[in-house]
Design the sequence.
């Protein structure tokens, strides 16, 4: 049914002598959007969209105000919207289509990409919700009330009213299963959810994403959860950070996109991503204010969660989140506990089957809520987190009596009770369980104390990095920069030295190869360690996981790929020249002394060999590095990433890079050395060289160079050096690190957030880190190699 807005828009278009197609093209929205607005099928246009239409129509000020007023009246509460308010009919923050590409094709392509992303996001969080047993036996009730007015923007701004418009607050009350509907009532599309630790903010974001996606229309943005605690607003703009997070969790979105450097960037810039920002309170100290200012500099719709105190402090320093409504999560009631806890435990054997171990505890809380034991326990069991921990420790663990929680002599306050539940949660999670895993197979038994120590180190590692994200490629970042560099140099030294000595015995005597292996290993360790220091450690960063694969048969693109290949070519040639000259010089000195020459002759041989090897290695390293760039290919956009799959993908990419580097670099060095002997002999004098020497140099250089590249300059190589060698060797992690992390996830101690792990809750992370740092923290136990360990290495 046509509305006042529909009739007015159609009349103004006719006055401007435009077709629907012309107006759509000038305004940058879809033709279907224009058609829907004029027929009344699209009932609730966004104010930004109306302004785009007014600009395209060239309206006078009076006509603009009339059109905006009609749109606002159409979106009023007396006329329920057919589409969600506050969301773009077509993206308002848009980028231009690629040259020569029709706008409709460009928008359809992005809509298809957004649809694939929506499916991946829904599948991911559905699995995560099941893993956390949110629906067993039913979700704990999460309710909210309006937040204090000083934490909420003006309601005229929230309602997107024109100048002079006034209106009262919106009714935003609801329960967990209504969060998507409540959000859709907000014309600005901006909502802040406040709640104290453990109040259910993260579970609410998961439910919001799943419910929103169920009713999402093709033109609407895709809600994606981002852990905002990892964002540094002083280093990255908000949109760039969103793009980086999307690319990390969905590597396929790194593929080139229409009108932008990548599909992820195109989705963000075109307004097809609805950021769900979890954990504003977890942003590093001192960055809450600049983070809030950066969010206010954008007009993107979003949902933000935070603890009240941290958000209020940021608001006091700057301003509220512009155009955002705010709600405050409520505590659980005794009635909620009475309904929930008895249904989480087994029925009593004998006697009344309806009686459970929780009944005496709940009766005490109801009859004597201010008693010495009941008051402390009642204060603790007001958040879903603590109720879930209590369930894990007492309902899911046989032989535990929850009545002990009422012992006021043992627990003198709520803090002691919370520490008790956090402490015992790990023990309960790692108790022996004969039942099979959901995915098949049996659960490996692991000593709770050993698991607590390793988890404590991981929590301490995250505290040092000031992030909630446990990223496998940053396991070495918790170490001092000097330690990281020395460890990497030592591993490279031993690895390349061993390969040189072993393979070289096929060509020369054992004694010579032992000396050559020592020299090559030491030189490789020093040079690659220096390169690692300047490229990675000095910047206090980590090598990020690759978001591309390697395909041998593909056509190299131009532009960015070509520039990247040129940069790698120059860097590789320079590094090859330095390393080659150093290796050649030492090789010449050793050769001279082994053959009985004096020092002057040995030095002359060293200078000549340095020049030869420097040129040959430069000719090999530059093209090899450039070829790796040219052979890169985007990953499958449909792939949903978790930490293990991302690790495996990067392992495959690193193996492919190793193969390409070994073959290309080895061939170029071997053939290049054979071809360079004649002109070099004419330039500096004769060389003792033959085809066997070229073959040996090519084979050893190919293998050693590939190993150095993979270990020093790939994310998987960093994982191998630190998480699979150094940290287990020093007792801080188990040898089977991946198996341990996946097991912790299956037990509910860790959770997955895209391509990273996180602790189940920030409170658990803080508790484990504090326990690890305490003087009474146990020493790292020795890990048995038998069946009782964490399982085979992966």
Sequence:
């Amino acid at each position: 049914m046509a509305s006042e807005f529909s009739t007015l828009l159609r009349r103004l278009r006719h006055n401007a002598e435009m077709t629907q197609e012309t107006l759509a093209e000038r305004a940058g929205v879809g033709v279907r959007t224009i058609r829907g607005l004029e027929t009344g099928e699209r009932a609730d246009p966004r104010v930004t969209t109306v302004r785009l239409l007014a600009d395209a129509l060239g309206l006078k000020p009076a006509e603009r105000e009339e059109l905006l007023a009609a749109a606002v009246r159409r979106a009023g509460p007396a006329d329920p919207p057919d589409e969600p308010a506050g969301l773009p009919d077509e993206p308002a923050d848009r980028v231009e289509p690629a040259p020569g590409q029709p706008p409709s094709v460009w928008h359809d392509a992005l809509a298809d990409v957004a649809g694939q992303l929506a499916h991946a996001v829904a599948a991911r969080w559905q699995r995560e919700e099941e893993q956390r047993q949110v629906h067993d036996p039913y979700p704990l009730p999460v309710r909210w009330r309006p937040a204090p007015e000083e934490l909420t923007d003006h309601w005229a701004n929230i309602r997107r009213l024109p100048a002079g418009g006034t209106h009262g607050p919106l009714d935003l009350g609801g329960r967990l299963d209504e969060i998507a509907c409540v959000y859709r009532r907000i014309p600005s599309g901006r909502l802040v959810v406040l709640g104290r630790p453990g109040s259910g903010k993260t579970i609410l974001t998961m439910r919001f994403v799943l419910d929103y996606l169920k009713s999402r229309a093709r033109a609407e943005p895709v809600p994606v959860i981002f852990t905002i605690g990892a964002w540094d607003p002083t280093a990255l703009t908000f949109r760039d950070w969103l793009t980086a997070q999307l690319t990390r969790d969905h590597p396929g979105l790194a593929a080139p996109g229409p009108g932008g450097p990548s599909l992820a960037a195109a989705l963000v810039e075109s307004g097809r991503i609805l950021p769900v920002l979890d954990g504003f309170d977890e942003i590093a100290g001192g960055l809450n204010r600049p983070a809030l200012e950066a969010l206010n500099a954008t007009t993107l719709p979003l949902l933000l969660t935070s603890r009240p105190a941290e958000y209020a402090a940021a608001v006091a320093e700057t301003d509220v989140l512009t155009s955002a409504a705010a709600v405050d999560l409520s505590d659980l009631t005794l009635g909620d506990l009475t309904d929930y806890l008895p249904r989480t435990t087994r029925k009593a054997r004998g006697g009344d089957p309806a009686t459970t171990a929780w009944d005496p505890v709940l009766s005490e809380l109801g009859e004597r809520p201010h008693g010495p034991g009941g008051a402390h326990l009642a204060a603790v069991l007001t958040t879903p987190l603590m109720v879930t921990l209590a369930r894990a420790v007492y309902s899911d663990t046989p032989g535990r009596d929850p009545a002990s929680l009422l012992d006021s002599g043992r627990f003198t306050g709520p803090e002691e009770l919370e520490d008790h539940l956090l402490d015992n949660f790990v023990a309960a999670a790692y108790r022996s369980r004969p039942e099979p895993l959901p995915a098949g197979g049996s659960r490996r038994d692991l000593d709770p104390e050993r698991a607590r120590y390793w988890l404590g180190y991981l929590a301490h590692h995250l505290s040092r990095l000031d992030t909630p994200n446990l990223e496998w490629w940053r396991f070495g970042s918790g170490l001092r920069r000097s330690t990281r560099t020395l460890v990497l140099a030592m591993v490279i030294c031993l690895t390349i030295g061993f390969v040189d000595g072993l393979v070289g015995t096929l060509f020369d005597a054992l004694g010579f190869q032992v000396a050559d292996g020592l020299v090559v290993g030491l030189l490789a360790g020093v040079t690659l360690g220096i390169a690692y220091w300047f490229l990675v450690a000095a910047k206090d960063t980590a090598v990020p996981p690759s978001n591309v694969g390697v395909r041998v048969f593909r056509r190299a693109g131009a532009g960015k790929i070509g520039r990247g290949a040129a940069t790698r070519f120059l860097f590789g040639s320079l590094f090859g020249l330095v390393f080659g000259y150093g290796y050649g010089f030492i090789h010449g000195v050793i050769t001279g002394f082994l053959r009985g020459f004096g020092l002057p002759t040995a030095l002359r041989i060293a200078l000549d060999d340095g020049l030869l090897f420097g040129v040959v290695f430069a000719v090999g390293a530059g093209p090899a590095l450039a070829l790796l760039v040219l052979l890169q290919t985007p990953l499958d956009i449909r792939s949903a990433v978790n930490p293990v799959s991302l690790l495996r993908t990067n392992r495959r990419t690193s193996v492919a890079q190793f193969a390409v580097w070994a073959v290309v670099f080895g061939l170029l060095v071997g053939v290049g050395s054979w071809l360079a002997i004649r002109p070099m002999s004419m330039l500096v004098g004769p060389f003792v060289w033959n085809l066997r020497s070229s073959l040996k140099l090519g084979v050893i250089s190919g293998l050693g160079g590939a190993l150095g590249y993979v270990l020093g300059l790939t994310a998987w190589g960093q994982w191998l050096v630190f998480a699979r060698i150094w940290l287990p060797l020093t007792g801080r992690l188990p040898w089977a690190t991946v198996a341990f992390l996946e097991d912790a996830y299956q037990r509910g101690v860790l959770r997955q957030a895209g391509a990273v792990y996180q602790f189940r809750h920030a409170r658990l992370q803080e508790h484990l880190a504090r326990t690890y740092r305490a003087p009474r923290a146990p020493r790292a136990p020795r890990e048995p190699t038998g069946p009782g360990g964490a399982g085979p290495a992966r």
